Amino acid sequence: MTKHHFSLLALGDSYTIGEAVPLHQSFPYQAIQLLRQKGLHFYAPEIIAQTGFTTFELAEQILHTKLNDQYDFVTLLIGVNNQYRGLPVKEYKQDVEFLLHKAIHFAAVKTERVLVLSIPDWGVTPFAQQLKKPNISKEIDAFNAHNAAIAKQYGVHYINITQHSRAIEGDSSFLAADGLHYSGKTYAYWAAEVADRIAAIIKQ
């Protein structure tokens, strides 16, 4: 009997591809490694993400990419570039709902197999300090209030990584060399959260 291999589709932006670190240190790749260590069989993750992507650009990319009809698990982490570019929160709310519909569709309408991650707070990074931009954290909270509410509304998993991104303030080992994106050490934390949820779902 052949063993079942699970698939993971990861949708997002620079935080999903792991900008400034090797791809294997990104959170989707580290999550797959952790799941394999738990004895679960997973294909390499499929990633639809690009640095700088807003919700709208991610939606466009999904619509123009030939993907499988369905995946066992789907993660969605998007919105930092909407905040960075000063795009309206109202627009984000509509877009993220559209993206969540897509994610649920890719997960064969099994809402328990979709995981939304909150937007980390880049306001505490050295890069933000140089910009001297106030209110980043407040704005991130406003965007996250929407993705959390929509995740709850649709009954998907919600993983809060924002608190962790604030707790590591001042520790450069958690950041990539650019002082803005994260290091593999940070992604390892996110990956553990994702892998634990997925492993629990499979065991149910």
From TrEMBL:
The keyword Hydrolase applies. Residues 10-188 form the SGNH hydrolase-type esterase domain. InterPro entries: SGNH_hydro, SGNH_hydro_sf. CDD domains: SGNH_hydrolase_like_1 (cd01832). Gene3D superfamilies: SGNH hydrolase (3.40.50.1110). One of its GO terms (molecular function) is hydrolase activity, acting on ester bonds. Keywords: Hydrolase. It comes from the Bacteria. This is SGNH/GDSL hydrolase family protein. It comes from Limnovirga soli.
